[in-house]
Queue: 4 jobs
Job 1
Amino acid sequence: MDDLIAKLKAALGPAGVLEGEEAAAKAQGGWSKLGVPRAVLRPASTEEVSKVLKLCHAAGEGVVPWGGKTGLVEGGEADGHLALSLERMNKIEEIDVAGGTATVQAGCVLQTVCEAVEAKGALFPLDLGARGSATIGGNISTNAGGNRVIRYGMARDLVLGLEAVLADGTVMTSMNHLIKNNAGYDLKQLFIGSEGTLGVVTRAVLRLRPKPMSQDTAFVAVEEFGQLSKFLRHMERALGGTLSAFEVMWEDFYKLVTTEPAKGKAPLAYGHPYYVLVESMGGDQEADSARFEAALMAALEAGEVSDAIIAKNQAERDQMWSLRDDVAQVARNWPIFTFDVSLKIADMESYIAEVREGLKAKWPAHTLMVFGHLGDGNLHVIPGTISDHSPESRKAVEAVVYGALRKRGGSVSAEHGIGLEKRPYLGWSRSPEEVALMRVLKQALDPKNILNPGKVLEPASPRVKAAE
Amino acid sequence: MDDLIAKLKAALGPAGVLEGEEAAAKAQGGWSKLGVPRAVLRPASTEEVSKVLKLCHAAGEGVVPWGGKTGLVEGGEADGHLALSLERMNKIEEIDVAGGTATVQAGCVLQTVCEAVEAKGALFPLDLGARGSATIGGNISTNAGGNRVIRYGMARDLVLGLEAVLADGTVMTSMNHLIKNNAGYDLKQLFIGSEGTLGVVTRAVLRLRPKPMSQDTAFVAVEEFGQLSKFLRHMERALGGTLSAFEVMWEDFYKLVTTEPAKGKAPLAYGHPYYVLVESMGGDQEADSARFEAALMAALEAGEVSDAIIAKNQAERDQMWSLRDDVAQVARNWPIFTFDVSLKIADMESYIAEVREGLKAKWPAHTLMVFGHLGDGNLHVIPGTISDHSPESRKAVEAVVYGALRKRGGSVSAEHGIGLEKRPYLGWSRSPEEVALMRVLKQALDPKNILNPGKVLEPASPRVKAAE
């Protein structure tokens, strides 16, 4: 390793390799376990990333790619390994509003890109809580989702082209700018959502959308789960393609984020089982507001919704969103465990009931916070007031949360990825044939297993054992 | 081969293997060269597809998957080979409107699926000229595009899950129903758009959308190319997400489809360089029509558009679309050669000018029909009245059409795929590193090269030589 580090220093210069306390400091502040890396490599260009991988490939040494370190599944865990940070590759290379593209380096922070695009009069629609520190490279590597998937899709749908450095240092530049391009295999798909295990994303061409000219936001109360999906389908139809958010909060979560010490105020009375933040983005404020109001009125009359309030201005809109975003409140129920799952909407009610029963049996005093992007089939499920935060407790909670999910054909990861944390449960959502094919890809693209080794798929000698 | 055919007959039964004249008859009516297959295999289930591939894998014999045989790039060419037709696998297994999915076998005809979904009150938005015979399996394998990509995306964006049989007969079932699923690699992407070279798609879960409640269609005239993209961006913004078609016709094409023997009537006077069919699909007919009209008026006032007519009823709408769809008229300029390219909108004007110059130099009497999905950067370019239809003429025309494209970083295939026909030009749109990575995938998934051998990528001993 020392010999390799000397070579890396020669290749990247002094600013390019951090060790000791400097490396440890870079591992602070991550949202999930990062460990203490042996060194943090900070290449300043694609060529330097290529040099790093060539050297590591020759030495058979693994590298753990780092973006904004906001991942939630230990996908950046680099204890004793080399971390490969893209933080110095943060140039916005071009914003082409007429062409509808932004070309950026992977280390660009999401919010910085969104703001630069907006300043030019367009929209890059990816939006998620970690926007202020998550990077485009991380968004792509994890196929990030967020608040507007229902309208604009996930990160996968927002990338036209990308550049990735392969395990052996080959630079695979596939910076497509075209919406339609069927000239051979769509290689970018390999690197989107594979969590840095098949290549290191260094640059990307992002697809921009027209900046919406209108925004309408409401907060509504719903009495029965069955009405939630009726209300969703009604709004999709009535708003004709402009529905941009459909965020559901179970009552417990709603209460949590509207009671002290939370700063949020309750826009609607308590006592309803479900609350929905619904939003539309369109082309004409006056006409769209009228349509939005009419659609809500129709839902009230049809009994899909029992109460509703429309944001009259940006401040009220911000207030509504601040409730949805104040996920930090869940820590009040410490010890907590957080989950990100997806399943058919039709299965959600019985799923949550079964999880609640399962938790109750072991932890009578448990809490259960549920909220999520219902329109995408994605729920965040956060059991709390569990006896302790030990790995054993986690495993017991996982048995309840994932056990009920497995029966229903749900996914153990809707938008967070697998990383290390969910690896034991990959086989609960994917068949042996699927996992075998993933291994074929990993073997073909990274035969020495140096790219984020051990993440997503178990290595030959597993550090984390698969769940039964 | 005879021994293999005997085994295939035992596995599939008498209806499952056609030979001789029966096989030759099945190869009639294709839209591009199919050749005369040694036999046509007609499995009736995924298990039978698996048996076929197991036997062919063991024998090292190639198979050429067939859907509706409407491909345009010789992707189904099977001369002397085994064709694998999915025509008996045409069951619609489930349409779940509340869940927003349709589960179908690969041999289902696109139009049949669309109609069945519509009858249940939802929309499967894929729409293209070959809808009456193209199959879902073919649509997926070629990542089909068509008329509504600007609103709903290509086939890739409309597939949630699929089942594919791998080269060795392994059934890889990945019938995901969820919009968000980041549990490991997104394996379906391997089989979408890879033209049957990495696996045979047998079933799919399609994503449905709400049935639009409104439709507004107009035909407009535009005086300058630069105004076209301004008009496009204006309509995208003003219609707030409901723009569903933006089909441009150059004047020559417009004249061709509105003069006898064509049956189409000209909705606007001749004498404008560009005509656009623009359409919106929304949620409220009255409000959407008002918005559509207002957006067109604004475009007229801004000078983006010089004349416009709005369809007052379905008959007028059908008339407008019939012009766009009457591509068969181009045969009046025989000998013709057809191309499907994509490039940045900003490059299109100079591109067409250069193609025109290049053709003129060699064929002073040439015609040039241009039309396409401008919003997607996709043009169909059809030179006609070329001296003869020989391979040499084709090559000379390709040199002009692809030569001008290559300089501009365009794609030799926007939506039709590569097949055999475009294989020599793959390297004109893709870098050596990209093609090398495609080969890595092909080698990993089909090491014996039995899946649609020779399509997309050159085999070791090429039948078609790459262009220089």
Job 2
Amino acid sequence: MTLNSTHDSRRESWVDSANRTETDFPLQNLPIGAFSSPARRGPSLGVAIGEQIVDLGALSAANLLPGRIADACCTQNINTLLALGPSAWSGLRQQLSELLGEDTCPPGPQRDRVAACLVPQSQATMLLPAAIGDYTDFYASIDHAGRVGAMFRPDQPLLPNYKWVPIGYHGRASSIIISGTDVRRPRGQAKGDAGTPHFGPSRQLDYELELAALIGPGNRLGEPVPVATAPEHLFGVLLLNDWSARDIQSWEYQPLGPFLAKSFATSISPWVVTWDALAPFRIPAAKRPAGDPAPLPHLADANDALHGGLDLHFEILLRTARMSAAGLPSRKLAEGRFATMYWTFAQLLAHHTSNGCNLRPGDLLASGTISGPEPEACGCLLELTARGTRPVTLPNGESRAFLEDGDEVVLRGWAQAAGFRRIGLGECRGTIFPARE
Amino acid sequence: MTLNSTHDSRRESWVDSANRTETDFPLQNLPIGAFSSPARRGPSLGVAIGEQIVDLGALSAANLLPGRIADACCTQNINTLLALGPSAWSGLRQQLSELLGEDTCPPGPQRDRVAACLVPQSQATMLLPAAIGDYTDFYASIDHAGRVGAMFRPDQPLLPNYKWVPIGYHGRASSIIISGTDVRRPRGQAKGDAGTPHFGPSRQLDYELELAALIGPGNRLGEPVPVATAPEHLFGVLLLNDWSARDIQSWEYQPLGPFLAKSFATSISPWVVTWDALAPFRIPAAKRPAGDPAPLPHLADANDALHGGLDLHFEILLRTARMSAAGLPSRKLAEGRFATMYWTFAQLLAHHTSNGCNLRPGDLLASGTISGPEPEACGCLLELTARGTRPVTLPNGESRAFLEDGDEVVLRGWAQAAGFRRIGLGECRGTIFPARE
């Protein structure tokens, strides 16, 4: 998709809160989510605009959306819309941009009809945007893979396959939860000091900052998606916190990979920022260091060198129960940039389908922990505290090697570039509550 | 569930083909599947009886099923019925047993009404029985784990966690296909002889004989299922072929486990044999060898020693394209027994939920490759041919290290015990067709 009027930074919305500098959701963003509210029966799809939500079901009922799109917007999740593909998505974006634009929808009956479809975000409960069939978690940050590898395999931090194969594994779809849902500390088996394992609450609970892509039309079983057309299957992105119990993980993960260390909860942010909205923020994919192998042909795309990367920024915030009680704000633990990832989403998707595996609308492909080369660009506590050996000190004197009960973790993300409105991903929030007795 | 009249081996059905000795589907079995047929609009649920299917939707429409069950049987998959739980399942079994019994449904109007709901299996196309949300694959055969481990880690075949943790990983749900669907040879990355990887058709395609349990009501996120009540969540079992590309697998699997080596296809048999039907075939779980650790308390159940195991038998059959063309029958490659598994389904389920992970109706828990200690009890070619070094010779002079295009693999399974009718699992069938150009 090329840039068009929907990306024009000069345009404002008649929804005032969308024009504030600090908003995540200006007219140029238009992310989609699912919500319920006291005034609506059942879940609806909606689009964030400033501090409001445009109810897509209501817009559709008011005949303000074109036919095929209108039907897809009257459902309780985004899956039908996902299956329609890029031209439908662009059509919806164009229409919403016009209906919400100050310039394109002047005061009058039409604006009134759209305004009647607004719901304040403060009155809405956000829900999972999609019925997620399969969730795949990759390992696309070479800095994360290298730093974690060094802890477990000092002699060989990066395994020989890393620069050839986009490493990934199947995650658990059932335990994906929406931002704001509390996360219960898992119990599990870990290796005891005496050499025998014990079962109990995890003592090394961690977060992982990730970006996830929501899949559109997908592919038929047995028919790989070429890397060049992979972006046509990417509807949009959201923030994902891949909560991880490191003590359970290190004991269970060989030889078949992480399982219960991850499957107790995975949080996602509610607003899916579309691939279209991110068009101004595509940048060349990270350049491979000299000496690294070139991607094999099925993972090589000339477009990646032009705009395979995404110039997204992230931050990770922590607030403990004591900080909260004392009225202290969250403490920023780390920052992240997506630009340093070793594999692009197009490569991840092409790899995923290269064996014929079918993706379905609503599948989720997560990047893996987003870490950079800088010491502060650590996407999880495992890295940030060097496996708990260098705890982080907090403003009130507390310290953290891993997460404790009552800790709230917030992930934030945004895109920014000269000449364009800042596009926010919103936030992904979760608080740890104690393990079951 | 205790034994009752539905298990009585003396009882026969008025559907003649159900009374033949060799049938998989006598009156005592009553497995459930989904099918379509020219005479029906859309998919229906059905129960196999001899060579016939009783259309549950039609039975329901004829008011021959009690209310709550009737509604759950009018859908296109088994998920609603799965959510109802054991008492509903037993109620359905009892009712079907009566409607199909020679003794309980004598010639007359009622029998005629049931007979009007029969569809010959030869006219039906079987479909996936459930909408499978998450598919988990375990590694519960210690003989398989040890034999495979010895190939990859001669110094340490069995990792230290094996006897403590039921090892498993998340599988791919989207590529689960019904028996009879052809399987396209996957392409993928493998380690070349020259040390650099290449991308192309897998040269080490394999099958894996597995048994999978279909999950009933499941549990809420954060609320583990105790091992003692785990069987209440097991609706029934089916055969599963976890097709595996060994060359892709050995290159990709570290550190996050198998991914594309498995996700191109997983075949399942169409008939779900209920836990109730298997009641006569429950046997003590395999006794752990002296010196092995006892299961940790959350995986220890006194019932396992009594009837945690299942006395199921399997065979794996192969027919190559040339054998087929020559009119030769399949060749039996191996036999298997479920009785030797190291972990029971109750333990697998309790482990899976021990961290709070939620199971949903329709989730699938597979056992992992079923192998025994005997050389002929190898559940995959990797073991049977010692990683391809000892090819199997076939009756027509062909040999196989791994699967070739045109090969058909059939898995069969059944339960047998003195004083009871043999209960068949049916078969799980698939033929390899060539990789995409």
Job 3
Amino acid sequence: MKIIVDAMGGDNAPQEIVKGAINAARARPGLEIVLVGKEAEVKAAAAECGPLPETVKIVNATEVIEMHDDPATAFKTKKDSSMTVGLTMLKNGEGDAFVSAGSTGALLSAGTLLVKRVRGIRRAAMAPLVPVSGKGLVLVDCGANAECTVEYLLQFAYLGSFYASRALGMEKPRVGLLNIGTEDTKGDQLRLDAYQALKAAGDAGHLNFIGNIEAKEAIKGGCDVVVADGFSGNVMLKTIEGVGSFVGKELKGMFLQSVGTKVAALLVKSGLRAFKERLDPDTIGGTPFLGLQKPVIKAHGSSKARAIENAVYQAITAAEADLAGQIEANIELMKVGR
Amino acid sequence: MKIIVDAMGGDNAPQEIVKGAINAARARPGLEIVLVGKEAEVKAAAAECGPLPETVKIVNATEVIEMHDDPATAFKTKKDSSMTVGLTMLKNGEGDAFVSAGSTGALLSAGTLLVKRVRGIRRAAMAPLVPVSGKGLVLVDCGANAECTVEYLLQFAYLGSFYASRALGMEKPRVGLLNIGTEDTKGDQLRLDAYQALKAAGDAGHLNFIGNIEAKEAIKGGCDVVVADGFSGNVMLKTIEGVGSFVGKELKGMFLQSVGTKVAALLVKSGLRAFKERLDPDTIGGTPFLGLQKPVIKAHGSSKARAIENAVYQAITAAEADLAGQIEANIELMKVGR
């Protein structure tokens, strides 16, 4: 297994990226890592992590895609960027998966145009595992496609379902359509039509479709995979982050009120830490782009070493799951007649 | 000031509704309450609350709109329902505002068709005050209109802004457009077009438009009014509720872990209560339907007496604010050329 890592992407590149990737290589014998980036900088960062494991190689790339670069074209105008070089290697079979904490938009464009979608897949989708009830919730799409068709949503359902079962170990994942009510008459035209397409797939036994689901119930554990257009999916994801951060701040204020509450904070210290850890994006790792021919994992822009290490493990799991093969074998089910 | 209350709407009708309305009448001298519903039941419920204040009247209505009735037509097929009778009284000037904890869909249809929208307003919108940072966040629309046009969104911005400033005391409320990024190139076509319409209104000094806003920033207090189509607005609202309930459950588990954590729970008891109260829908009261000629307030279906009492106060505030007058005076600003 060989994972290609964009050493230059993200707020803490290259130091934290290099450190996380090297930690993964040390922890998993047999795992090969390719660090792509400005050679001198990557080497300097690696030197801080002790002797370089033999399983870690460095590939030089002289450019870096920055947040202000146009995401749609950056990978072309910066042909020698770490992202373009790394994705090209992935495409050419010089690695099994690619991890980057760089610009989401650039990675999506570059991934789609260089690695390419599985034939028949209309759009790649972003599918984070949201750390709510139980094993968590696969939210697909969460922002790659603001405007969607019924076929996109049907495909997202399959992509999310394959990912949940093959990479996350969820058996017969329960797929819900994010909607503003549970009855089949709820929502806009897109939801009405998508419901019918998903129901047909469910009735035929191809998906474990449980119907429409409201955001509240999905968070409570009402389904394993929630299918959404990228606009409302992104609103859901960002709202979860926002409320999490709001609640954290309020609790902090509550525990700082008096000597008594400060004592209370000490008494629940380990519980609070576990709770915070649970909602910590660093624990989760990255968001896979589903529907591409090879695994591409987007790590948070603010990723530190541990997040990158986890994203590398996630990339391994995704590569082992051979999602592209599963998608190809089922692509006929994912078409919507016109 | 005379508030008409649907005594039969909601899970706890008529007892809790009647109690809440009578409590409001007792607390506010000069406030008149009209309880509409099955006379015998309402009288029996009122008898449980002690002597009926002179300011509380009961109007008989022999039918009740149930949750399983078709929301679009229930008010017509059940002409003698508490909702239809109450809204007709409102329309005829026999009261200043109407409060109901009954079916949201039925209330929206009945409110729109009986009380009617202000001339020029395309759609009524639901605008709850979400109890997040600071004074809270007006979320408009949160579910009445799954499918929206640019003109709807522009109108929602004005409706929310007028409500925030005139009824909630927010000065020059900061209006943000819910989007999946802050740049003006973000989002789907609806958002791109709405951004331009809102920016023009902001540049002309009619609205304090601060641009696109992500759900996370809105929750953190980045704006006072967030403008959304009813689909994504509903997803945001339900996600907030879902995460709130999820966090509450997790915290409870944390505090129940050991003797030490139980002691901690005692030490932060008052803080926890304040925190819970803050997020409690009963404290907030109801959701106004903005854009109608007279105030209609939807209380939670699960409302108990305190929630109804608060919804009555909210109805008073809405009536005093004369939102309809403000909307009428500015309706020309809310039109989008075709």
Job 4
Amino acid sequence: MKILLDAMGGDNAPDAVIKGVAKAIKDIEAEVVLIGKEYVIKERAKELLGRDLSEISDRISIHNAEETIEMEDTPTQAIKSKKDSSMVVGFNLLKEDQGDVFISAGNSGALLTGATLLVGRIKGIDRPALAGILPSYHGRLVLMDCGANTNCRPLNLLQFAQMASIYMANTVGVESPRIGLLNIGTEETKGNELIRNSYQLLKKYAKELNINFIGNIEGREAFLGEVDVVIADGFTGNVFLKTVEGLGKLVKISLKESMTENIFAKIGAVPALPSIKRFAKTMDYKEYGGALFLGVKKPVVKAHGSSDEKLFEFTIKQAEQFVNHKAVDELKSIYESELNKEKLDEIKQYITTLEV
Amino acid sequence: MKILLDAMGGDNAPDAVIKGVAKAIKDIEAEVVLIGKEYVIKERAKELLGRDLSEISDRISIHNAEETIEMEDTPTQAIKSKKDSSMVVGFNLLKEDQGDVFISAGNSGALLTGATLLVGRIKGIDRPALAGILPSYHGRLVLMDCGANTNCRPLNLLQFAQMASIYMANTVGVESPRIGLLNIGTEETKGNELIRNSYQLLKKYAKELNINFIGNIEGREAFLGEVDVVIADGFTGNVFLKTVEGLGKLVKISLKESMTENIFAKIGAVPALPSIKRFAKTMDYKEYGGALFLGVKKPVVKAHGSSDEKLFEFTIKQAEQFVNHKAVDELKSIYESELNKEKLDEIKQYITTLEV
């Protein structure tokens, strides 16, 4: 297996990427190809690790790419004009099967655009979307779409539910994961037009599509272990995701402060620190790694923009597992089948009756 | 001042209401009128407090109402048919100036419908909305709309911003509170059509309307003290609110568990318990009381459905302050002025140019 890694993407690139690879390589079997300015990577590696990457492992190599897509670049434009950027080169290697997965912490918009334009959508999938992992009571929660599609149609939410089910069954090993539709109430009459129509669509087709749809879920219940997957349009999903991130930060800061607000608290806290640290960890969304861009022909992982070496290490290991579990092949075989084509036409027909 | 209180509303009514009043009355100057089945309230009071409410304070009285609007009732239907329900009676007393504020923890939909139908919108306000208070770094955050309006137009979000500013300036005493528009990015091109148009509208009219608009805000930053008010449509706002509630619950459970997962953690945690409890408190949205329904002619407070006696006590005190600060009168004088009428027409005209 070959993991393609954008060495220039993210707030802490290339240093955090290089250190992350150096750590991850010990625990994975795959090769890792760092894509970016070769001389920069080599120079930084020597500086950071005291030796060449090749000395760390013969499974680490560098593929030169002279350009870099910056955070402020316009996605489509950047993908089309910066042909020799680490991201575009990475996507082309992935497309030409010179790699099995591409990871980047760079410009999110460019990553999604590039994946769709260069790697291509799986036939039958209307909109690929980001599946992210969040903390939840005694486990984790998959959120889809995390923000790839600001404007969605009911068909998209149905397919998000289907893709997320297949992903969880294949990768996380959860048989028939419980799928909830993010809404402001549990009754099927609740929510805006998109959500109400999506509910009806899921209700009608869930069984046939092997989606274990348990109905609407409110943010209040989402974390308490009642669902494995939360489905939302990209706008609502992204608000949900960032709210979790923001509150996670608030928790860490406030907890730290209340533990050190006075000398008694300081002393008192010391014996409890291990459990407090463990708790803070479960609240840190970063512990849950990158998001998968499901619906494109090959595995693409969006690493967190502010990833540090620890997170890159984790995301690389996660990517290897993701490829091993072949969720993307599974998605392809299901969506590209004749059967699905017929079903899709039927579903689209049914939707027209809903949205009138 | 007279506080009208729905004695039959909420999961823990009437007991929690009765106990809450008995506690709150010591700390407030207002009279409190409990509205509901008189014989039930009297009986429960004797049972819970060991004496009649009148013996606790001559500022507590009961106004009989034979019916109760249940959680599963259809709002509009319930308001129209249950004329002698504690909620409808409460609204009518409020309308007839036999009270200065109405508090209920009952059926939310019925509360909002009743307030709009019976008390009436302030002229010039297109849609009243719920302003709720949330935890934030070293302070609190006002969220508007918390969920009264599932489908909104840009004009609504502009007016939410204006109402929230006036409320904060008058009640919380924050001069020119910083208003953020809840979005999935900070750039003005981000978000769905509603949010993009609302951004343009706020950008153009904020100054004139004395709104300190600081631009888009992401859930990530919302809690870190960068804004005083978060503006959102009722759907997104409600998702945001319930996500905060849900994560708050998760925090409390997980923290408790990690503190007691083994004997060492148990012992270790003991000295830190005060600061941990204090922290858990800041994470508990319930500590922040009821939500105000702004935009109707008189003060209406939506208490949390699962309010316990402590929360009712707090919400009652909060309501007295709210009335004292006359935010509703301020809203009326602003919106009902001729000047605002002209301005409103101009704004509506401008909106048509946006939404084309």
